[in-house]
Specification:
The protein is of the alpha+beta class and 301 residues long. The protein has helices at 3-10, 29-40, 86-90, 109-115, 158-171, 176-180, 210-215, 244-260, 268-273, 278-286, and strands at 54-58, 61-65, 71-75, 78-80, 98-107, 123-125, 127-129, 138-141, 145-146, 188-196, 203-208, 230-238. The protein has 10 helices and 12 strands.
Amino acid sequence: MSAEEAAARHGAPVPHGGLWFGQGGWAPPPEICRAQLARAGAAVTARYGSRVARLARVADGWQALDAAGTVMAAAPVVVVANAYEALRLLAPRHMTIDRVRGQLTTLEPAALARLGEWPDCVVTGTGYLLPRAADGTARVGSSYEPDPQDSGALDARPAVHAENLARLGALLPALAGSAAGLDPATLKGYVGVRSVSHNRLPLIGRVPDEVQAARDAAALSGARLRDIPRLPGLYAALAYGSRGLTWAALGAELLACQIEGEPLPLELDLAEAIDPARLLVRALRQGTVASGDVPAEPVPG
């Protein structure tokens, strides 16, 4: 779609033409999650306000325990899907998950009135903007900044609002002057945390048994992923980055096929590219996992 057509049809004065996805759309992520839970019905029992302190391996599977050691749930198969908190439960030596902070800026109706015309569609490029919601607000973002786990509360920062207004100006140069006139200190927004791996690919699949791998390090020096020992019944679905809602369904299908022994929905090289044991394989090949260097049990029983 040309820039002229984008402005005429959608009120989007973009600086140049781009790709138009006619069947694209946007939705608040919480609504998608609620819809998925509703569709699952009785197949899912949701427990909110609960914190799993640790996982314990038992004869017939796994137990999720709270801080007092009480069994919260038990099952033969566990999928760890709690973002960067997985490091607390698994304590891996050869799996990285970093926190990346993302801040969206909310533009209230008064601010939008100062900007003038606003697109009726999503515009993406060096950032993105969303059309007006039912309450008359719109949003622009998003930042992508490292966020240490000790960073404290996820409060919106005026400096990042200013960066988002600059992103708006780059997406819609005609609004750049008006956007620059908004006071970032008066703006509100939403802040969340993404979880990313070392190479921005997710961690989906069977969790490696690092204890056994360390004991067998010499024999595994030329190992491939299929040779790595795994913790039975323990799987991961982690580090989706900014693509959780778009990748999660395919990741879940991959896990279901691995659990049930069915043909995989991905080519083998793609499944291996997101295998949670990929850094362990690298360490074994480089000889940085010594046979005598046995880590603590990742999920003590």
